[in-house]
Write a structure and sequence with these properties.
One of its GO terms (biological process) is phosphorelay signal transduction system. By secondary structure, the chain is of the alpha+beta class. The chain is built from 19 helices and 13 strands. A six-stranded antiparallel beta sheet has the order 3-2-1-6-5-4. A five-stranded mixed beta sheet has the order 8-10-11-13-12, covered by helices on one side. Helix 8 (224-253) runs antiparallel to helix 9 (258-277). The protein is elongated, with a radius of gyration of 45 Å.
């Protein structure tokens, strides 16, 4: 089959597909679903396809005519993409960006027109067609990327971006391949018409499908890294293309050394690109330029917020939380370092520094200065590089004198929690753009509040830990005082009866035993406080412990009675401690009961448990007191007579033995304490 016939069929089919697309776009334009310029761009592609197809039959298309049609096709689609972006989003790209794209096809038109007027033989050079197509294809891809990136609400725009982007990508491949061999590849050129037709057909079918659906939000979006690399690659491609153009003419007019010089130039350009894009500074500057000119917002807020939360909540026990706060803020704004000031005794004092020396005590700031009030009342971010209109320059006069001694000062960020100024962070200048816009200020304030809340929470947790330590110390002190009170009561009783019974040998012997017992218990208490021995666990006969506890309470009224239903029960516990808590329960019952009442103590065995009950018919307690206050430490109804820890201590000790304490009580009827202790399973 003749090659001209293949090309004719290819471009004819492409023209037919663009004819269908033009009709469909005209209908959609009438429905106000697309911009009218898309109809014009499709019509230009139809004209372009038809002219090239006719060239392969009985019509000869001049080279200047082909150049003009190629430029018209690219220009119409670039303009259509730009106006579609504004049509879809209601916003324009930055003026410098639009000027750059439109200037490329305008310059192409002017250059070709000038060559036509001057009848310059360069029109017949195939390289002009190659370079024209290569440069405009790159410009078209950049325009496609912006439409795809920003048209978030219309699937029609996404479809347009994909299909037209595919056409430009094919052209980029075609002309890049042709540039290497300094002539256009016939196979790729012939296939170009069919490729364009296929893209137009896909666009037609897709537009019909999308037009039938209700508009819905698109979930596709190109991220900033993708835009960064796309723009960088486009710039690198343009740079290499210019170098290749220079190398080509060096080869053409350079004589015998032309090839060597061309290869040397291309190799140097390639190595230069690798060196430039391997530089952190260069990449940072490119990233700042892209953020300013390619995006509606300077920051990817979702990414920044997730990264902020993840950094602040990252658990690392070895890391200083204050240092982490500085690191997080500095990394977001690319600052080289910073220092944190926190409130302490009426001053804001430097606590931690990163990437700079820690300021000394001369850099403390009183909390009531105009500098601090501006941060607290107005949430003011002090900056020496603010580029905002109508910015009050005199606001920086509130900065204290010591701030001037900090090298490379960039800004002062307040850390606010509601209306409290927790402190502030000073950041040094970033390595790239140091200007501050409204968008920077909004993000700075949001980050400052979030960091302040985490610092405040961290401070609260430390205060809680200290309070818990003091609470544990106070409880220990209370328990010691409770034991000493009981020992003092024993000693006081001996002293009280000494004058009356000092001549009685039995009393003297009993007093010596009492003192010996007190000394032993105090020694045991000191041993526990010194942590030399926490407990003296023994296998005890429980009925003997009860007898001892009841005897200790015989001097009080009413005298307790003891009923032993079993004498074989043995438990494992600390003898002194168990005796003390049982005696304490019996004394409480005696204090709550009238002299004419009763206090009955009973021991029985129930399976694997020993059951001790202490029953009285005293004043009793209501259910609310039993449920909410009885076992609460330091809460007592004995005004001036107790510390309110005896029952709490009893429950904690019995729970440590694996048992439990239960209480039944009624006002003016009495109370029953039931203590359950597991029986020892050890064999004697």
């Amino acid at each position: 089959m003749d090659e001209n016939y293949i090309a004719f069929i290819s471009y004819s089919v492409g023209g037919a597909c663009f004819a269908a697309l033009t009709l469909l776009l005209a209908y959609l334009c009438k429905q106000k679903l697309v911009h009218p310029f898309l109809v014009f761009a499709s019509l230009c592609s139809l004209l372009w396809s038809a002219a090239i197809a006719a060239n392969y039959q009985h019509f000869t298309l001049p080279r200047e005519g082909l150049l003009l049609l190629e430029t018209l096709r690219y220009a119409s689609w670039i303009v259509a993409l730009m106006v579609s972006l504004q049509f879809a989003t209601g916003q324009r790209l930055p003026r410098i960006f639009r000027a750059m794209l439109h200037s490329l096809w305008l310059i192409s038109f002017i250059l070709i027109g000038t060559l036509i007027v001057l009848k310059n033989p360069l029109l017949n050079d195939g390289n002009l067609l190659i370079w024209n197509g290569l440069i405009l294809a790159i410009a078209g891809l950049v325009a496609v990327e912006q439409l795809y990136r920003n048209a978030r609400h219309q699937r029609m725009m996404k479809l347009l971006s994909i299909c037209i982007g595919a056409l430009f990508a094919y052209d980029l491949y075609l002309f890049s391949y042709s540039l290497i061999f300094t002539e256009i590849d016939k196979g790729l050129w012939q296939s170009r018409g069919a490729v364009n037709g296929l893209a137009a057909l896909l666009m037609t079918l897709g537009a019909i499908t999308v037009a039938r659906q209700n508009p819905q939000r698109s979930v596709f979006s190109v991220s900033r890294p993708v835009a960064f690399y796309t723009t960088s690659i486009s710039a690198a491609g343009g740079f290499l293309a210019l170098i290749a153009l220079g190398g080509y003419y060096v080869q053409l007019y350079g004589g015998r050394w032309g090839s060597v010089v061309q290869i040397a130039i291309l190799f140097s350009a390639f190595v230069s690109l690798l060196a430039l894009f391997g530089s952190t500074t260069i990449r940072s500057k490119v990233n700042v330029w892209i953020n300013k000119n390619f995006f509606r917002h300077k920051y990817d807020y979702r990414k920044e917020w997730l990264q902020l939360i993840n950094s602040l909540t990252h658990s690392d026990t070895d890391e200083d939380f204050n240092e982490r706060a500085i690191t997080v803020v500095a990394s977001i704004f690319k600052s080289q370092g910073g220092c944190l000031w926190l409130e302490d005794s009426g001053f804001y004092r430097p606590i931690k520094a990163l990437g700079m020396p820690l300021p000394d005590a001369r850099h403390c700031e009183p909390i009531e200065t105009p500098f601090c009030r501006a941060m607290q009342q107005q949430e003011w971010v002090f900056s020496t590089h603010t580029s905002l209109p109508n910015f009050p320059e005199d606001i920086n006069k509130r900065l204290p004198e010591w701030v001037k001694s900090i090298p490379n000062l960039w800004l002062v960020l307040p850390l606010l929690t509601e209306k409290r100024l927790l402190g502030f962070i000073i950041l040094t200048e970033p390595s790239t753009d140091a200007s501050v816009t409204w968008e920077d200020l909004d993000l700075l304030k949001a980050v400052g509040r979030q960091v302040a809340s985490y610092l405040d929470r961290h401070e609260a947790s430390e205060q809680l830990a200290r309070a818990q330590q003091f609470d544990a110390f106070n409880k220990l002190t209370a328990f010691v005082m409770h034991d000493l009170k009981n020992l003092i009561a024993q000693q006081a009783l001996v002293v009280e009866n000494a004058a009356k019974h000092k001549e009685n040998p039995a009393f003297v012997e009993d007093a010596i035993k009492t003192i010996d017992n007190s000394v032993g218990r105090m020694s045991n208490l000191l041993r526990k406080l010194q942590q030399q021995k926490t407990t003296d666990i023994e296998r005890l006969q429980l009925h003997k412990i009860l007898i001892d506890a009841v005897q200790k309470c015989q001097s009080n009224r009413p005298s307790p009675s003891l009923r032993l239903e079993t004498q074989s029960v043995k438990v494992e516990a600390d003898r002194d401690h168990l005796t003390m808590i049982l005696a304490n329960i019996i004394k409480n019952a005696q204090e709550a009961t009238a002299v004419s009442g009763f206090v009955d103590v009973t021991l029985r065995e129930d399976g694997k448990n020993a059951i001790i009950t202490v029953e009285d018919n005293g004043a009793g307690m209501d259910n609310e007191f039993v449920q909410n206050r009885l076992f609460k430490p330091f809460d007592t109804t004995k005004s001036g007579k107790g510390m309110g820890i005896g029952v709490y201590q009893t429950r904690e000790f019995i729970a440590g033995l694996g048992g439990r304490v239960e209480v039944e009580s009624a006002v003016n009827e009495g109370t029953t304490f039931t203590i359950t202790i597991p029986v020892s399973t050890l064999k004697a």
